[in-house]
Amino acid sequence: MKKTWLLGFGFFSISITWALYNAFVPFFLEKFFTSTALIGFMMTIDNYFALFLQPWIGSRSDRTNSRFGKRMPYLLIGMPLAAVFGALIPWHTGLLTLILFMVLMNLSMSLYRSPTVALMPDITPDNKRTQANGIINFMGGVGSIIAFAGGAVLYEKHHSLPFLSASIITLICLAILYFIINEKRNTTLTPVPLVKKEPISFKGEWNRPTIFLLGAIFFWFLAYQGVEALFTLYGKNQLHLTEGQASFSLAYFSLAFVLAAIPSGLLGKRFGKKLIIAIGIIGLIIIYGAITFVDTLMSLRLLLVAGGIFWAMININSYPFIVALGKEQSIGTRTGIYYLISSLAAIASPPLMGGLIDLMGYSVLFYVASGSMVIAFLFLLGVQDKGLSRTPPSTAADTSTLA
Questions:
Q1: pTM to 2 decimals?
Q2: What is the topology classification, in CATH, of domain 2-188+205-390?
């Protein structure tokens, strides 16, 4: 699994960047906006790009055939650009330059997020993908811990330091991926030639189990994305924490996610992805409801630890689940669909929850998140995936090799 661990550096860099973005950009926006709903809306910029660009980029990467491979060209373009524009965000001189840097960074990241994710199933046999997803999300979780814990310290020294550090790490991770992951050697999946001029279509991917699973994905991301985008403001304004304490508290969630990532993948393989996801959803329903009653920093962080474990059970198993319901040749396309639905949730969630906060106060945040998880659970119950595995293990093992 050496290649899988090294591929995790791609997720490591993405997680660091997004964790810092979600933790500290709301504080920049708070200088210009008094409405939490408007701040929440501004935090969804990345998801508008994900809504349109990532499905297209994912599908196009399925049909790319360059000397660098199918996915790597998108990383080579997007990661350096994201590093530059991310580092510029704290140097904004006003609202216009802040929004400009945010838009350019998000646009750059949209160029490589789907191809980076699609690399995992490309180089991993079908029957190993759940464990592999646990490994790469372990790496992503480590990135989040570093971002929330180290970022809080760096942010209090100077607001630019967390973003500059994330940009440097992104470039280092790109170098690791470029020199270690050789797509021509590590996978035998054949790209669909661009000369066929086939129109990009998702029609063949929408079977009944996929639709129900995507419904569940939408609602659990509706809960998670709203909480992630607004938690630091919740901690500051509802719990009266400092900005550093609020962002550092999220490190507890990420630490638990890291520790539970690989075990969650193993549990998904042993007992089935649907069952483990269901347990995770039920757990988060309880945790989100309980957070509304906390009155100490320690109790908040203990609940965040439990929440990170349950989120790992959901998140680690969901992407391999959605990929397993489609065709082997459509991995990039289904990756794009996965991001399409999660991005729709992320677009809707922060403004929706922010608007409710404006009307009823910050205490409503976790009530709404818990209710959204209940709906996700109901959709999950409708997923009947028996017999829909794309390929038997013996065949899947032939689709890729791990050097």
A1: 0.68
A2: Growth Hormone; Chain: A; (1.20.1250)
